[in-house]
Design goal:
Length: 301
């Protein structure tokens, strides 16, 4: 058994698994004594958590106007760029409340281009979820084909709301999918911001080293990896973060026995890594099928 598997097994023995919460109309928790999996909206789920109970957050909100997860009240299908940014910022207000004063957030968010005159996004052959029936018009002040700069719009908003913006990491995907565009380089990266609630925060500098044992730099080469689907399991997630990215982020900002949170848990990548690191975890995910997938993954099936 590998060290990591052994650690997870020992942890599983010592902790009571997790509780799935489908009905958010309930009494708030006064402490987080077990792993919690909310099936519902991020903001409403986080409202049920006690203040200053979470050490670190790793999350990747839906990108604006890129995918339709086909569920009511989802983030990402907002009519305007402003309402998209406002809805993520709104969740971050709750994130701020539940974060410990020495806590941190890793925020992975990708950029998109304006729609030009197209009012839909054609399906991508390799990624069928990357399609939208209705695509919002080009935001005011931008032009067709403009790169929107979504990560930085969010980062500036969060800075203004009082967060410390501590690092911009470029997650370079060496195996990025080709694009059919002829007038710009192919996109092969996403942004990951490190944010803190206060000026000083918990961070273990030596927890991860870069190539050649050097101190970790801000450009990380990490390939994307499709989910190895369990046999007889049809659910899939179109926007999974690789485990390697989650491991690299969290190793530096967790403490022993702390709580890790992902308000947009997707397929549960951050929750799985939290478990590997011996932490408790809390995830919220709005789409019931994905919550089932998380249950499958965290159970190691
Ligand atoms: C980019 S994916 C996260 C992927 C995740 N990091 C992983 O590795 O699987 C964003 C997720 O947010 C979910 N989502 C969308 N709107 C939400 C909301 N209001 N509250 C909670 N989850 C939401 C989507 O269903 C989607 O699974």
């Amino acid at each position: 058994m590998s060290g990591r598997a052994l650690q997870a097994a020992l942890w599983d023995e010592a902790t009571p698994g997790y509780t799935r919460i489908d009905n958010l109309d309930r009494k708030p928790f006064t402490s987080i004594d077990e792993n919690l999996l909310f099936c519902g909206d991020a903001k409403k789920s986080l409202a049920l958590l006690p203040s200053e109970s979470v050490q670190t957050v790793l999350t990747s909100p839906p990108y604006w106007s890129l995918r339709d997860y086909e569920v009511e009240d989802q983030t990402g299908c907002d009519d305007s760029l402003e309402s998209y940014v406002a809805s993520v910022m709104d969740v971050f207000e709750e994130v701020r409340r539940v974060l410990r004063t020495d806590g941190t957030v890793w925020l992975n968010v990708g950029d998109v281009y304006t729609s030009g005159n197209r009012r839909y996004r054609a399906p991508d052959r390799k990624n069928r979820a990357r399609a939208m029936d209705v695509r919002p018009p080009t935001p005011e002040g931008l032009k067709p084909k403009d790169l929107i700069g979504i990560p930085w719009r969010l980062a500036f908003g969060l800075q203004e709301a009082g967060w410390w913006l501590r690092s911009e990491v470029i997650w370079h995907k060496p195996n990025a999918q080709p694009e059919s565009v002829q007038d710009r380089p192919t996109k092969a990266h996403e942004t990951v911001f490190l944010l803190s609630k206060e000026q000083d925060y918990h961070y273990t500098i030596g927890a991860v080293c870069g190539p050649g044992g050097r101190r970790l730099r801000t450009v990380w080469d990490l390939p994307t990896k499709p989910l190895r689907r369990p046999a007889n399991w049809s659910a899939d997630h179109p926007a999974m973060m690789p485990l390697s990215l989650a491991r690299q982020c969290m190793a530096m900002t967790v403490r022993q026995n702390c709580v890790v949170l992902d308000p947009y848990a997707g397929s549960g990548t951050s929750l799985i890594v939290a478990r590997e690191l011996g932490c408790r975890w809390v995830g919220a995910e709005i789409k019931p099928n994905y919550v089932d997938l998380i249950e499958h993954r965290v159970s190691g099936l």
